[in-house]
Write a structure and sequence with these properties.
alpha+beta, about 45% helix, single chain
């Protein structure tokens, strides 16, 4: 009996004591965050007022105010059981980082210590920056970097079994002040979109003083039993299965999506939500996703900078909680071939300080000039900078997912829906008519309620779709940080707002009718942006050829997609809005290209090791068994007393030949893969990344095809790796 059968017999859900009456979430929501209400209770009114002024873009708080807040934060953390603090930040690795320091200070002339935390330590930290990627910004031996407190996001406490740590959300910069993280550009982009939106809205007589983006990232993931994952080096080292034949049953019956959640998984979900709620993460939705053992969490909308922090925290909570349940949470974009991968749908919108969602069309969107202007600004931005939006979703994992009829293709387009498309077409033609009112849906049964049909249907094939009061960017990968995506959207939309505002002001010099002037300008912008609007099925082959006719790029390769960060128009826009400099953009290009190369390199080496040390030895053993059986049949075929079915010998010979051919081609392709890897190492960074996509990845696919053929034909007890039917279907 194989070791896989042993694992099957031993898999059991973790036992938990049933909680008869769980506490209402409102009773403990945010208890592990130093919220504004907690701060207000522990500091003076003067200091709190200064803090709020700084938070809203005013003067930095004084040293005395910082000391008071730090002392209050320390006192709050100590009451929660924390013994250390950390500046928590988002380096360009795509993960989070933290360095813990104790609160203790030695008391002079004694053998004791006291807990102490000052404003200077709260505001500024000094981690070693040498081992973080800089993309050429500084040499490795130039180690100093700085973390600086981000007051827009509350401090929080993380817990493990033996202790707690106060974490202070921070930005991360180099010794010279260059951004080495993903949060600082996001905060800069918020300032940019605020400035541009407020200036644009002034033309409409609005008294808005602040505009900010909001975000709600939907998080997809897989849960797999930990014992199975530990039997697969590919899952442990790369996050995806590099070999593995499809299970006879996959997702073809559509019986997983929104289905009844297994008890083991539901216990895990309650555990995650409990931890998330204590951290103030507003998880709202949980459900089964399309593929077997695939699931989703989704939050309530928040300001984007806070949503980015919360999504990273949620992913961390999800991975740690899974281990408590003897499972592993897989966030890779494509852990399993043949079933849907995992994305992170970024729902983005703009709101103002008066409580308005600027992308809310209202009951009469054709009369809502502000909504129409913001809408056209977004469409115009995607038309001009779709390459940047594609770059935001570029990564080794996402290459396997985009365009696979489970996620949008690499072609960036915008879906508006039937009603808004009609309105946009009317504006373009200059003939504005009363739009059709929202329809009531009557189900024909008096017992059931009538409801209002939404302004738009959902187009799940579109990479950037309007979904009622927001846009949904569906191309981002599950493991990715939303910060870069939101930074790009904020910046390019801010730029289009500036362009439209200037055009409206210019046209108003020759016209006194504000409404008709705005519509005239919007008409021209719609004409310019029309190629990016597409209402059909983005998965179909016809769209690929149609998009090419429209001049829309289709960039499948990560290496090619990342080039968008270095083109002159990108540099000009980001520098003009003071979001990222040329140096910072070039660094990101270099870092993410390097990350792509290293990721694929690890996959190549993992594949080679697994095939050479696990799969081929088992195949050789089976090959010997078949050869022995074939030899026996040949001997017996000469015995006239034994009746053998016609073709039996040839059939066994065919089995041996097919098996031998698969083994030969695996070996042959492994040798070629090794040679290709050597060739790649002689290329420069850009050429190497392109070579990995064009040559290395197809070679890995050749090896996988023959390995998967072996899995289908070899005896179950000889196959060394957990199979898809075990990974995806054993609870």
């Amino acid at each position: 009996m194989s070791s896989r059968n042993d694992i099957t017999q031993k898999i059991e859900p973790v036992a938990f004591k049933k909680i008869e009456t769980p506490a209402p979430v409102s009773s403990y929501y945010g208890v592990n965050t130093f919220s504004e209400s907690a701060m207000r209770e522990m500091i003076s009114k003067e200091t709190f007022k200064a803090f709020k002024k700084w938070q809203e873009g005013g003067a930095v708080i004084s040293a005395a105010h910082a000391d008071e807040i730090a002392d209050a934060m320390k006192a709050w953390a100590l009451t929660r059981g924390a013994t250390a603090y950390s500046h928590w930040f988002h380096p360009l690795t795509g993960l989070t980082a933290e360095k813990h320091d104790s609160f203790i200070n030695i008391v002079p002339d004694t053998q004791g210590v006291i807990e102490k935390f000052t404003g200077s330590k709260l505001i500024l930290g000094e981690p070693d920056a040498s081992s973080f990627p800089s993309g050429g910004i500084r040499a490795t031996f130039e180690a100093r970097g700085y973390t600086a407190w981000d007051p827009s996001s509350p401090a929080f406490i993380t817990e493990v079994a033996l202790g707690k740590t106060l974490c202070i959300p921070s930005i991360f910069i180099s010794y010279t002040g260059v951004a080495l993280d993903k949060k600082l550009p996001l905060l800069r982009s918020e300032a940019a979109v605020n400035k541009s939106a407020v200036e644009l809205l002034k033309l409409f007589g609005s008294g808005v003083k602040q505009v900010y983006s909001t975000c709600g990232p939907e998080q997809e993931f897989f849960l797999i039993d930990e014992a199975w994952c530990k039997k697969r080096a590919d899952l442990m080292l790369t996050g995806r299965t590099l070999v593995g034949a499809p299970s006879p049953k996959g997702q073809q019956l559509d019986d997983q999506y929104f289905g009844s959640i297994k008890e083991r998984v539901l216990n895990y979900m309650y555990d995650v939500c409990n931890e998330a709620f204590k951290l103030g993460i507003p998880v709202s939705t949980r459900h089964n996703e399309t593929a077997p053992h695939q699931y989703e969490f989704a939050p309530i909308f928040e300001r984007s900078n806070l949503a980015a922090d919360h999504n990273l925290l949620l992913m961390d909570v999800m991975k740690k909680a899974a281990l408590r349940h003897n499972m592993m949470c897989l966030l890779h974009e494509k852990p399993f071939a043949g079933v849907n991968g995992s994305g992170k749908h970024v729902n983005w919108s703009l709101s103002d300080d008066l409580g308005n969602n600027l992308l809310n069309p209202g009951d009469t969107p054709e009369e809502n000039l502000i909504f129409l202007t913001i809408l056209v600004c977004v469409v115009h931005a995607i038309m001009r900078h779709g390459d940047l939006l594609r770059a935001a979703a570029a990564g080794a994992g996402n290459e396997h997912r985009l365009g696979a009829n489970e996620a949008p293709p690499a072609i960036m387009s915008v879906f508006l829906g039937e009603q808004l498309t009609k309105i946009v077409n009317m504006i373009e033609s200059g003939k504005i008519e009363k739009a059709k009112k929202q329809d009531f849906v009557d189900l024909g049964v008096k017992l059931l309620p009538k409801f209002i049909r939404d302004t738009t249907d959902r187009n799940r094939t579109s990479p950037f779709a309007f979904t009622g009061t927001k846009f949904e960017f569906r191309a981002l990968g599950s493991s990715m940080n939303v910060s870069t995506t939101v930074t790009i959207i904020n910046t390019i939309v801010a730029d289009s707002m500036d362009i439209i505002r200037k055009r409206i002001k210019s046209e108003l010099k020759n016209s006194k009718n504000f409404g008709s002037t705005v519509l005239k300008v919007l008409s021209a912008f719609i004409k310019e942006s029309k190629p990016v609007l597409f209402e059909g099925n983005n998965y179909c082959d016809d769209w690929v050829s149609e998009a090419k006719k429209r001049g829309l790029p289709n960039t499948a390769s990560t290496a090619e997609a990342l080039r968008a960060f270095t083109v002159p128009k990108t540099i000009e826009v980001f520098e003009r809005h003071k979001v990222l400099s040329k140096v910072e953009l070039t660094a990101r290009y270099n870092i993410w290209l390097d990350l792509y190369e290293k990721t694929v390199d690890i996959e190549v080496r993992t594949l080679s090791e697994m095939v050479n040390t696990q799969i081929l030895p088992s195949a050789y053993s089976y090959q010997s068994d078949i050869a022995a059986g074939l030899e026996l049949l040949r001997d017996l075929s000469d015995d006239m007393t034994i009746k053998m079915a016609e073709g039996a010998l040839e059939d066994r010979q065919e089995v041996f030949e097919n098996l031998t051919a698969d083994i030969f081609y695996i070996r042959k392709n492994l040798k070629e893969l090794d040679a290709l890897l050597g060739k790649a190492n002689a290329l420069d960074q850009q050429e190497k990344a392109s070579f990995f996509y064009s040559d290395i990845r197809p070679q890995m696919a050749h090896i996988r095809r023959h390995v998967d053929a072996l899995e289908y034909t070899m005896p179950d007890e000889l196959w060394p790796l957990p199979k898809y039917r075990e990974l995806l279907f054993i609870s």
